[in-house]
C-alpha cells in the first residue's frame, strides 16, 4: 500500500503505511522486511527530506548487510550517490536528492 501511495504522490500517507509496516516487522523480528521498508521510507523522504532519507538508508543498509542480503548493494548505491562528485556536465547540487530539507508535503 505504501509503495502505491508513494508513486501516486501521497507521501504522508505512504510514510504512515511504511511506518506501520516497520513497527510490525520489528515486533515480528522480520529483519529483511525491516531493511526493505526502511529503504522505501528513505525513497519517500528523498523527495525533499534529505537528512531523513540518508538516516533511513543507513539503517536499511546496516540491517541488510547484517543479513548479507544482496539488496544491500542497491541501498549502498543510493547512499554513495548522495556523496559522489558531480560529473563534468552535471549542474552543481545534482549529487544530492534535494538542495534543502524542505519537503513538498509541508
What would you note in describing this structure?
This protein is an all-alpha fold. It has a single domain, classed as Tetratricopeptide repeat domain (Serine Threonine Protein Phosphatase 5, Tetratricopeptide repeat, Alpha Horseshoe). Helix content is 63%, strand content 0%. It has 5 helices and no strands. Helix 4 packs antiparallel against helix 5. It is globular and about 30 Å long.
CATH hierarchy, class: Mainly Alpha
Distance between the ends = 21 Å
What is the correct CATH architecture? Alpha Horseshoe
Mean residue pLDDT: 83
Q: According to CATH, what is the topology?
A: Serine Threonine Protein Phosphatase 5, Tetratricopeptide repeat
Assembly type of the chains comes to single chain
Query: In one word, what is the shape?
Result: globular
SSE layout and pairing:
Layout: H1 2-7, H2 11-27, H3 31-45, H4 50-66, H5 72-83
Helix pairs in contact: 2-3, 3-4, 4-5
Keywords:
5 helices; disordered C terminus
